[in-house]
Amino acid sequence: MGDDHSTARPLRADARRNRERVLQIAQEALASDGLTISFDEIARRAGFGVGTVYRHFPTKEALFEAVLLGRIERFVADARALATAEDPGRAFFGWFAWVVEQVSANQALCDMLESGSAMAFRPGSTLEDDFAGALGRLLDRAQRAGAVRRDLVVDDVQDLLRGCLAAERRARARGGAVRMADVICDGMRAEPH
């Protein structure tokens, strides 16, 4: 019986490592190739048979959701970490520009936004509310500090974020040097008194 226990642990650890490897490869593939990447190609890049991928993720959508929602959870965590930053304006604008940079360089996140599914949140998930709440705290603090226009609400900033992402991708595609996030951030800044 001791042998059964000693062999079971490595299998669980192997399975965990395999799942992490699939997620890592899927994240890289989705960033470069977008939502059109196949299970077979992800398995090939990870060095696994497609059955290994299916064991961890029963559908392509389940795998993509795990990767993409993980990225959005990171945006939420970073916004929450910045909620007590010493300079609320710098925290707000820095986070906004960082999200634009991360998403515009990630083909799959861009595909999600362009498909009209906004952030493609799972029904019943609190992630959409978490995202809006974390953004709202950054916005409120930056407005109270006089760094951001008072007439903006969270929905406005989310719309500006989506528009900025589309503009940033078009600028990159044509080789433009103008950073759209900087332009949008300038438009959100409070007028100096």
Secondary structure topology:
Layout lengths: L1 H32 L5 H8 L3 H7 L3 H23 L5 H17 L2 H8 L12 H18 L9 H20 L6 H9 L5
Please, could you describe this protein's structure?
The protein has 2 domains: 58 residues, Arc Repressor Mutant, subunit A, CATH 1.10.10; 127 residues, Tetracycline Repressor, domain 2. It is built from 9 helices and no strands. Helix 5 packs across helix 8. The protein is elongated and about 60 Å long. The chain is mainly alpha-helical.
Structural class determined from secondary elements: mainly alpha
Helix content estimate: over 70%
Strand fraction equals under 5%
Say which CATH homologous superfamily of the largest domain is assigned.
Tetracycline Repressor, domain 2
Using the CA coordinates, give the radius of gyration.
Answer: 20 Å
Under the CATH scheme, which architecture of the largest domain would be assigned? Answer: Orthogonal Bundle
> Main sheet?
none
Counted by DSSP, the helix tally is: 9
Span between termini? 77 Å
The overall average pLDDT, rounded, is: 83
Low-confidence stretches: 1-11
What is the number of beta strands?
A: 0
| CATH classification class of the largest domain | Mainly Alpha
Number of domains: 2
Query: Which fold name corresponds to the CATH topology of the largest domain?
Result: Tetracycline Repressor, domain 2
Quaternary state of this entry equals single chain
Shape: elongated
Order of helices and strands: HHHHHHHHH
